[in-house]
Write a structure and sequence with these properties.
globular
Length: 309
């Protein structure tokens, strides 16, 4: 049985994840028919964090300390620049009025109230990237992931204590889960890849544990549940031969998934504002998806031009 959580599989996976998130957010803008996706969106966000933790750790294992050279230019700047461009677009479309810069900064620092409701993810992933860089730069390899886990737990405790919205911390463990998975990938495949029965038993065990944690209705258990869900999904993805399928549209969307995540809320809010509540829901969804994809592609292109040497 062959397993591989390869980069070549990630574009269609990212595309499906971001589409689940976008469709889930329509229910907040007058499209209740898509409300079912609201339950899928949080695990999809957790999976993005898992993929980030996995990708950073795997790249470090492959390239060693050289991977940290220019880390902020390659990685952090590519997170910040699209986010700033989308904020500028949001302001141009008439959003974000009524609060000054320092008031906005204070709102983020004390209550986690970002300019755009989904921008908590940008701050969270920046924290994760900085934490990864510090731990891999300063600590021995054998304890780096444990330090990342400790840092994420402190982040979760701090944001929860400060009263930040649950989205800030409930799926945060997915990032260190991805890092640990990357470090122990071969051992995991060795245990559950000896035969079909072992694989399905592993999935069944993870499914039972995840369901049990979810059914507790306890938010602390839910933080563990999202980590289990991402491990379950990682095994499924590793088993599937996604890289052999020809999925050009999903592959292309996967390449702009981050930009699409950032831009869809401003586009959604702007269209709802100008179209009104009585506008056709089908046309609203179609127009939002089309304009969001176009805007995401344009932002991606601008960022590539800006970062080209």
């Amino acid at each position: 049985m062959t397993f591989a959580f390869a980069n070549s599989k990630m574009p269609p996976v990212r595309a499906l994840l971001v589409l689940c998130i976008v469709l889930g957010h329509f229910s907040f803008y007058g499209v209740p028919a898509l409300g079912a996706f609201r339950s899928i969106a949080p695990p999809a966000v957790a999976m993005f964090l898992f993929i980030s933790g996995y990708g950073l750790t795997r790249s470090f294992r492959t390239k060693g300390a050289d991977y940290l050279q220019g880390f902020f230019t390659r990685r952090v700047f590519r997170i910040v620049l699209p986010a700033l461009l989308v904020v500028l677009l949001h302001l141009l479309l008439g959003g974000g009025s009524g609060m000054r810069f320092f008031e906005r900064a204070r709102a983020i620092a004390t209550h986690g109230q970002t300019l755009l409701p989904h921008y908590w993810f940008v701050w969270a992933i920046l924290f994760d990237y900085l934490l990864f860089w510090l731990c891999r730069k300063l600590l021995p390899e054998r304890i780096a992931n444990w330090a990342i886990l400790a840092g994420v737990l402190l982040f979760m405790a701090g944001t929860a204590y400060a009263g930040f919205d649950r989205c800030w911390w409930v799926c945060a463990l997915a990032f260190p889960a991805g890092a640990f998975f990357a470090d122990r990938e071969e051992a995991v495949y060795g245990r559950c890849g000896k035969g079909e029965i072992d694989f399905w038993l592993a999935l069944l065990a993870l499914g039972i544990v995840g369901a049990g944690l979810y059914l507790t209705r306890n938010v602390v258990c839910w933080t563990l549940c999202y980590a289990v869900i991402t491990l379950f999904a990682a095994l499924v993805i590793a088993r599937l031969s996604l890289d052999r399928l020809r999925l050009p549209v999903l592959t292309w969307l996967g390449g702009i998934s981050y930009e699409l995540y950032l831009v869809h809320i401003p586009v959604m809010a702007f269209l709802r504002k100008i179209c009104g509540a009585d506008f056709s829901q089908v046309l609203f969804v179609a127009a939002t998806l089309a304009l969001s994809v176009l805007a995401a592609f344009a932002i991606r292109l601008l960022c590539q031009l800006a970062t080209r040497k």
